[in-house]
Amino acid sequence: MDSVLFPLGILAAAFVGFNIGGSSTGVAWGPSVGANIISKSMAALVMVFFAFLGGWTVGRNVTETLGSELVQQTAFSIEASIIVLLYIGIGMLVANIYGVPISTSMTAVGAIAGLGFATDSLNWSAIGEIVAWWLIAPIIGFWCGGVVGRYLYPYLNQFFEIQQSDGPLVTIDTTSTVPTVALGPGTSPRELVSTVIAFVIACYMSFSAGASNVANAVAPLVGGGIINPDWAVVLGALAIGLGAFTIARRTMESVGNGLTELPLLAATVVMVIAASITTFASLLGNPISLALSTVMTIVGLGWGRASRTTTAIDLARGKVKGSVSVNAVMIEETDEVVRIGEESNENHRAAGELFDPAAVVKYVIFWIISPSVATFFSYLTFKFLPITMT
């Protein structure tokens, strides 16, 4: 193997992993950071561990799909792998600069599909299955969020939602021989348990991100037999960690505070649904967008919450009481849950205060542009430039 091209291939994969860390960490930990559960630095540290774990286990299925099933393995020469990885990384870098957590998987599939188009090696059944999941996943996220928001969220809010206290969650007394841990000033047992649950779920989301996205950085190299799958996961996880500690700070801020001011309960619901969709798809070997599932779950949750002002029959007939908006995750505390159809819009937060539709539009635009550009330029490169293939 060329002594110059091999290091370039490793650097290209690291470049992609770096940008994946910037995008995926924002999606996985943005809601928790926005809800003041964890600091950005600690979120980055935990992200590295669980992304590695996800890539080492479930992520191998996605690596196999991208590295050997989407296009013929013979198409992945070292030169082709480097170019594919560069297009993936550049597309993600532009989005990270704008603080938008784009779909890593969609960008990676687009760049690899461009190679397949140009070399007549694209597996159409594989790309069809992947695209089908791209369409299904956000729909599932929206309706799961909608069902929870309409039928379960007020009850969850009544029994599990808490007001987060100021100051540390716990304190550690080191004056005695054996350090003791106690609740922080103003911290209730309920707040402690809820925060721990939200943290565990965010770790699960990091695992899901690793399962789906580590493959995006290393699959071309693995597919071409350029690097061992085990070392590829290590390389991808380290590169993701570098991005998590650097450029991810902006995407965490964007997701945590720019898209929506999620309360703790809503952040927990969103993370469970989005991570479960992504993990299940990864088990099947399908690379899907964790970012898209997350945002559509937020939209569905808000819409379902707001739709409680209208019965299901009236909603189906278009007879809506008040405005059914996605801006209604935050609700007023009440002793009893008001029945569907009897709830007032006064219980909802004012439109625009919780949810920023302009942010969603920006995200969707980048999700469309990024994979489209990656596919287009990848195709042109391999179609018209004399790239050596094995």
Overall description:
- Helix content is 68%, strand content 2%.
- It has helices at residues 5-34, 40-56, 59-69, 78-97, 104-119, 124-160, 189-223, 229-245, 248-259, 264-283, 290-306, 312-317, 357-384, and strands at 170-173, 180-183.
- A two-stranded antiparallel ribbon has the order 1-2.
- Strand 1 (170-173) and strand 2 form a beta hairpin.
- Helix 7 (189-223) crosses helix 8.
- The N and C termini lie close together (12 Å).
User: Strand order within the widest sheet?
Assistant: 1-2
Distance between the termini: 12 Å
Task: Give the helix level as a range of percent.
Answer: 55-70%
What's the structural domain tally?
1
Q: Using only CA atoms, what is the Rg?
A: 22 Å
The description of the largest β-sheet is: 2 strands, antiparallel
Please write the string of helix (H) and strand (E) elements: HHHHHHEEHHHHHHH
- The SS-based structural class is mainly alpha
- Look at the structure and give the mean pLDDT: 78
Write down the overall geometry.
globular
Low-confidence sequence ranges: 349-355
Strand % is under 5%
State the helix count: 13
The number of distinct β-strands equals 2
